[in-house]
Design brief:
28% helix; 434 Repressor (Amino-terminal Domain); single chain; 5 helices; elongated; alpha+beta
Length: 214
């Protein structure tokens, strides 16, 4: 890897500072203001007149050479006839993502693990207002021991391989590849018959904010 590429990789990997975010914000506003002005067929002078600022100030904004005050942002939005939020559309924000290569999900122990039931955690996103868990379930043993589960939240099953009879509440569903089942996790649920092995399905659970892991 060349020095330039290595330097860029190191820069991207470094923690973001408030100064970095400030620069991102200036560049995003500059890009959006210029794009909106061009879309409306306005010159810098004409747009500046609409907004009520000088041509020099608008030029500085479009070249990310100055920071906009709240009053200036409001004037830009009004003069260009767009919502204020349209000026921030390209702002880079930090977001959480979990990538799990095939076959590298963490194996977790749950009821039924000793009866040939494999649970592979594919990822879990958590935060003040979000909590989601994705598990790849593999049932490759014809054991007649089938544990029932109950937990808070909503669960979605997507069948990938094999055929399984899955119980929820007082109903049994025969699931084949491509079938999906979404349900309230508080009712008893779980596989009750393995019709064609191996059975593999993706189980995605969305928990409420106050939920405790099952």
């Amino acid at each position: 890897m060349g020095n330039a590429a290595a330097g860029e990789e190191a820069r991207l990997a470094a923690p973001r500072t408030p100064e970095d975010l400030h620069e991102d914000l200036k560049r995003a506003i500059a890009t959006r203001v210029r794009a909106i002005r061009h879309a409306n067929g306005l010159s810098v002078a004409a747009a500046a007149e609409r907004v009520g600022i000088s041509k020099a100030m608008l030029s500085k904004i479009e070249n990310a050479q100055t920071s906009c005050s709240l009053a200036t942002l409001a004037a830009l939005a009004e003069g260009l006839e767009v919502p204020v939020t349209a000026l921030f559309r390209d702002v880079a924000v930090e977001s959480e993502a979990v990538f799990v290569p095939s076959g590298h999900g963490a194996r977790i122990i749950r009821r039924g693990s000793k009866q040939g039931h494999l649970y592979e955690l594919l990822g879990s996103l958590r935060g003040p207002h979000k909590r989601m868990e994705a598990v790849l379930v593999t049932l490759d043993d014809s054991s007649e021991v089938f544990p029932m589960f109950q937990h808070q939240g909503t669960e979605l099953l997507y069948m990938l391989e094999g055929t399984v009879v899955y119980h929820h509440g007082d109903v049994d569903y025969t699931m084949r590849p491509g079938d999906a089942l979404q349900f309230d996790g508080e009712a008893p649920h779980g596989p009750v018959e393995l019709v064609r092995l191996p059975c593999r399905f993706l189980a995605v659970t969305a928990y409420p904010d106050s939920a405790v892991e099952p």
